[in-house]
Specification:
Length: about 110
């Protein structure tokens, strides 16, 4: 609530960013699932976009959240764990999807 004890002007933009980011990731997840099960050629690209988008949203969320005094004063270990997990996930699976002969042989339609 504006004027409240823990109010910060970045709460509004952060909330809007998180909602839009989650909607985007949900849409990409649905698209990737459809492309995966139909073995479409576009699956690797969409999956990489999903992984990188997730990592980017988590990084931006941590940076902006760190600028809000109340959130910065009480760090959430689960948030940091999720950030590391998202980045590691992207670092492992993006190169695999790009270089794997199995992926190239599977997604051909």
């Amino acid at each position: 609530v504006p004027g409240g004890e823990h109010y910060h002007p970045l709460y509004g933009p952060l909330l809007i960013f998180e909602v839009l980011g989650n909607i985007l990731l949900f849409g990409l997840t649905l698209l990737a699932a459809w492309l995966f099960f139909s073995k479409r050629r576009w699956f690797p690209r969409v999956y990489i976009a999903l992984l990188l988008g997730n990592a980017l949203i988590l990084v931006i969320d941590e940076i902006v959240g760190g600028r809000i005094g109340y959130l910065a004063a009480s760090p959430d270990p689960a948030s940091t764990k999720e950030l590391v997990r998202g980045i590691l996930h992207a670092l492992i699976w993006c190169p695999y999807v790009l270089k794997s002969r199995r992926v190239k042989a599977t997604f051909v339609r």
